[in-house]
Design the sequence.
């Protein structure tokens, strides 16, 4: 009987075959999402057409106000978290609702209001390019994702399904260029710690990929020193090899010993060496003067280091320190490391959320979902809370060319991603 049913379904077409895996309630949620779509698209047009580059504080707050009203209408309690004035960031929008029920997970939903496109860059407004593609500043990174999250919650609310759920929606105002200092994310981290699961709506790599892991980022600075002398004496015991050869030795050994490790990358982005060296770390600039007949006494190198786990970061740093320590004759070298964003490792808890996304997607008839390659994603706000709760990212809209003019969003996949998000939130909160 079962066999015959499966066979019949296969012939009936994939959507019919899978749609029956949805409960009556879930079918209602899907129908509500579809009915609301024109309104969700209007909201997306409205927020994309307001410039909200991170440093355009007025624009970021304006976009925040629009989402704030939407969450007020949903019955969420909304607050605006101001940043200290000297940080020069707009602040964050927080929308919360608390349920009494003990069933289901407490959710922390992540979005951001800012984009990489500042006011002094040419403005591109929301434009339809063809039947499945739109462009506009931040349409995919990540105003589309913000609307995916909101539209999913609206569909649940309209079916009375948010009752007794505990949900925090957190929209940061400076994801693309975070404010400096702990205050920038202190409240964000504190609110996440009150939740069980974080879902981040950064852009999706299509319908079939989510992110259970993101790499962390950090920086390093290498300084090498040699004995300044006439070039004719180089390599002689009393003169030595000079700072430039010492820097070259170290960088080449970094490449030989560390470049083939999975998920680990490091890049020397700036190098200055010579007789007189000025290196300005704050502005990422350097100046050097030197002559070919003088052995260089000093070299500065600045680089980054990306990794998946803290262990990988620490192991890489230990190897780099060891390489630095074995100096050429009459030279010396030192390396310092600075922490950036932590990594988000692919934990079993994160994988469970990916499995849920996969199940929901199959039940909707949209096909399988898998965890994508962590090496393809940079660090994000979700990385800051990954050590405290299970996390999944890449649940937002899909498209191409984030962070570049002409970024696009796929409007055909957009309603499907809202449906997937709505059912994931529904199942997680039962
Ligand atoms: Zn983003």
Sequence:
């Amino acid at each position: 009987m079962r066999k015959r049913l499966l066979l019949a379904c296969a012939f009936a077409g994939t959507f019919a075959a899978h749609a029956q895996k949805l409960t009556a309630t879930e079918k209602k949620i899907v129908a509500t999402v579809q009915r609301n779509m024109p309104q969700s698209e209007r909201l997306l047009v409205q927020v994309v057409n307001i410039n909200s580059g991170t440093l355009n504080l007025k624009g970021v707050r304006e976009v925040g106000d629009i989402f704030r009203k939407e969450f007020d209408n949903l019955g969420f309690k909304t607050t605006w978290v101001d940043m200290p004035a000297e940080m020069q960031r707009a602040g964050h929008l927080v929308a919360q609702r608390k349920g009494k029920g003990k069933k289901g997970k407490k959710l922390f939903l992540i979005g951001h209001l800012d984009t990489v496109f500042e006011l002094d860059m040419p403005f591109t407004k929301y434009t339809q390019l063809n039947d499945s593609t739109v462009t506009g500043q931040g349409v995919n990174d990540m105003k589309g994702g913000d609307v995916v999250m909101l539209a999913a919650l609206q569909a649940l609310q309209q079916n009375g399904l948010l009752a007794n759920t505990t949900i925090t929606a957190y929209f940061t105002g400076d994801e693309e260029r975070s404010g400096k200092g702990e205050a920038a994310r202190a409240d964000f981290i504190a609110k996440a710690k009150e939740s069980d699961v974080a879902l981040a709506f950064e852009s999706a790599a299509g319908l079939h990929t989510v992110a259970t892991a993101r790499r962390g980022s950090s920086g390093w600075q290498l300084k090498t020193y040699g004995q300044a002398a006439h070039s004719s004496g180089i390599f002689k015991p009393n003169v030595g090899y000079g700072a430039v050869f010492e820097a070259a030795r170290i960088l080449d050994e970094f490449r030989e010993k560390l470049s083939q490790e999975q998920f680990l990358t490091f890049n020397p982005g700036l190098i200055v060496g010579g007789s007189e060296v000025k290196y300005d770390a704050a502005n990422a600039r350097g100046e050097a003067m030197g002559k070919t007949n003088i052995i260089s006494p000093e070299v500065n190198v600045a680089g980054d280091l990306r990794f998946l786990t803290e262990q990988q970061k620490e192991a890489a740093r230990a190897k780099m320190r060891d390489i630095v320590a074995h100096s050429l004759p009459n030279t010396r070298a030192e390396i310092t490391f600075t922490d950036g964003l932590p990594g988000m490792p692919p934990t079993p808890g994160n994988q469970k959320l990916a499995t849920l996304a996969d199940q929901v997607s199959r039940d909707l008839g949209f096909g399988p979902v898998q965890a994508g390659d962590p090496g393809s994603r940079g660090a994000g706000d979700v990385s800051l809370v990954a050590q405290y709760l299970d996390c999944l990212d890449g649940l937002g809209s899909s498209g191409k060319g984030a962070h570049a003019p002409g970024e696009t969003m796929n409007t055909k996949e957009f309603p499907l991603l809202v449906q997937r998000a709505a059912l994931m939130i529904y199942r997680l909160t039962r």
